[in-house]
Amino acid sequence: MAVLGLDHVQLSVPKGGEDEARAFFVGVLGMQEVAKPANLSPKGCWFESGSLNLHIGIDPDFRPATKAHPALLVDDLADLRKRLNDAGYATNDDMPVEGYDRFFTSDPFGNRIELMQKL
């Protein structure tokens, strides 16, 4: 038995948050929404970009993940920072990590998101 890789990351949002999630993950980050399988709950939404699969689930007791976070690898960190700032999202630098340029932001619900670019 071996772990082979990561299939997807799921973030929680409050009830009714799908449209805000779409505006952020598609409109700002440039991901694409994909259809969820018909046998799953109609609530929530799924996005993908390259090999990344991101699932948004509805949590009736939602509390944002302010420490745990996905780290999304991007190809133009400076452009993404500008797009986030232009859309009203704060970006925060952190301690350097060798081989990467990176910063943190939060989605519309307060979930922490790390964005990284290999140097």
Automatic annotation (TrEMBL):
Pfam families in alphabetical order: Glyoxalase (PF00903)
Ranges for domain VOC: 5-118
InterPro entries: Glyas_Bleomycin-R_OHBP_Dase (IPR029068), Glyas_Fos-R_dOase_dom (IPR004360), VOC_core (IPR037523)
PANTHER family, sorted: FAMILY PROTEIN, PUTATIVE (AFU_ORTHOLOGUE AFUA_3G15060)-RELATED
Protein name: Glyoxalase
Taxonomy of the source species: Bacteria, Pseudomonadati, Pseudomonadota, Alphaproteobacteria, Sphingomonadales
